[in-house]
Each structure stands twice: as structure tokens, then as C-alpha cells.
């Protein structure tokens, strides 16, 4: 099978969703059991990067720091 921009890309996207959005190496091992795809790793990386679910799952939690507000400031704005 050929690499990017072909039927292989659609099949790789299907496998990515079928196997619960696993990573590049897992999906690559699944596809290589049956087919040889040129540039499979590059194509899978682009699929995982563009997948909204995978991006949300990889997102880092950023702590929010609240500034200390003095009691004088709170009393003035009441």
C-alpha cells in the first residue's frame, strides 16, 4: 500500500479509531501484521496530531494561580 494521501491513510484512520485512539507504535504494529505501508509512521503521526480526541487526552493541565487580594481592596469594592 502507498503512504500519505491514499487509501492507506483512510485505512490507518479507521484502525486508529477502531483501536480506541492508541498511539503511533501500537497502530503501526497492527497494520504491519497484514500490510506494508510506505511512510506509515509519518502518516500515523499526522493522524494522531490531527485527532481531536487524542489532542484533548494529551493536553496538560495548567494550574491557575490566584493573586492574593488584600482585605482593604475587598472592603473598598463592596
Q: What does this entry look like structurally?
A:
By secondary structure, the chain is mainly alpha-helical. Helix content is 58%, strand content 0%. The protein has five helices and no strands. Helix 1 crosses helix 3 and helix 2 crosses helix 3 (40-50). The model has no long low-confidence stretch (mean pLDDT 82).
Short précis:
This protein has five helices and no strands.
In N-to-C order, the SSE pattern is HHHHH
C-alpha end-to-end distance = 70 Å
Rg on CA atoms, Å? 22 Å
Q: Characterize the overall form.
A: elongated
- Could you tell me the mean pLDDT? 82
Structural class: mainly alpha
Question: What is the makeup of the main sheet?
Answer: none
- Strand percentage lies at under 5%
Q: What is the number of helical segments per DSSP (H or I, 4+ residues)?
A: 5
DSSP strand tally: 0
Helicity level, as a percent range? Answer: 55-70%
Low-confidence stretches: none
Which helices and strands, and how do they pair?
Blueprint: H1 7-18, H2 24-32, H3 40-50, H4 52-58, H5 71-76
Which keywords apply here?
single chain, 78 residues, mainly alpha, elongated
Amino acid at each position: 500500500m502507498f503512504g500519505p494521501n491514499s487509501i492507506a491513510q483512510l485505512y490507518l484512520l479507521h484502525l486508529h479509531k477502531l483501536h480506541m485512539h492508541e498511539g503511533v507504535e501500537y497502530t503501526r504494529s497492527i497494520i504491519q501484521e497484514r500490510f506494508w505501508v510506505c511512510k506509515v509512521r509519518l502518516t500515523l503521526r499526522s493522524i494522531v496530531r490531527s485527532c481531536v480526541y487524542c489532542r484533548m487526552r494529551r493536553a496538560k493541565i495548567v494550574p491557575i494561580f490566584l493573586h492574593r487580594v488584600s482585605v482593604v481592596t475587598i472592603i473598598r469594592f463592596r
